[in-house]
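Researcher: Structure prediction, please.
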Amino acid sequence: MSLTRRQVTVAAMAAVPVAFSATGTAQAKEQCTLYIAGDSTAAQKYADAAPETGWGMALPFFLHKDRRVANHAVNGRSSKSFVDEGRLDVILGAIRPGDFLLIQFGHNDEKTADPVRYTEPWTTYQDYLRLYIDGARARGARPVLATSVERRKFDASGNAVPTHGDYPAAMRALATEEGVALLDIQALSLALWQKLGVEETKKYFNWTDTEQDNTHFNPPGAIAVARLVAGELLRHRVLAPRDVCRLDAEIPESWITWPSPATA
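Model: Predicted structure follows.
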């Protein structure tokens, strides 16, 4: 379904954090916000999709309370379609100096048969990613690139297999060229799936009695990937040690909640 830019703006406002005073009045407060631009692997999920869980839903568990998350990731979007629908414009209209823009695309950029979403790794994919980088920098915010989290795929010998082709390499090259921090979630998640193995990884993906989904996560999977993201934000000094928490702690699955479906 095609959305107007106004509809996109209305729907996206739910992802913009607002600070309230004790009397309930919105007030300006100097807090850092981490905006997420991405696809379904990171997106907020609602009650009608449970237990499917985006890693962006779990990321706040690993950040200090004054490091807020505004999750604008949306199912099915590529670096191109996210821009074309006006979703990047929404973020750039809200982002402030000192904020961060975390960018993870690739899953849907790979859709070669879909001109609405497809980008070529070494040309249009990088071109669209530069729009996010330049847009954040122009507003005094810091862009951060994250390679796409890996799908659950194993070969006959039980080895975890990469599925994203040249897209991670293209993003790594762009990060070096542009001097942008890179969170290599593709490599880290592939190593984690390899460590867990064929059967154990089923407990991290959206495997139910009726669905065998090797792309999207359940609560344990989302928490595990969010932990990788938070660890990389710390390792690359995007965030300071005081900004993160619980990196080695057990996070209860009950902390994940699915609100009622959003209405525009």
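Model: The two ends are 14 Å apart (CA to CA).
Researcher: Thanks, that helps.
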